[in-house]
């Protein structure tokens, strides 16, 4: 996977978590900061979500995605997971 593909993959995954739980950029920064004990501000989250060609765009680091996933484990999704689980067979 080239760096551009990895950047897009991480951004999509990060955005999907935000949408799934209805998390704002500010709340995401707080959750990640609490989980990692690093200061993550809203500006960083905006940069991770920016279009690649934007001057402020920064690739979303995997540690931020992992932290956000851990922080959301106890939250209830507002949106069902769109990806079918492997254990569920589709009816045709």
Give descriptors for this structure.
mainly alpha; globular; 4 helices
Itemize the secondary structure elements and their pairings.
Blueprint: H1 3-21, H2 25-36, H3 42-49, H4 62-71
3D structure, described in words:
This protein is mostly helical. It has one domain. The protein contains four helices and no strands. It has helices spanning 3-21, 25-36, 42-49, 62-71. Helix 1 (3-21) runs parallel beside helix 4, helix 2 (25-36) crosses helix 3 and helix 2 crosses helix 4 (62-71). The longest helix is centred in the N-terminal third of the chain and has 19 residues, at 3-21. The chain is globular and about 35 Å long.
Could you provide a short overview of the structure?
With 92 residues, the chain is mainly α.
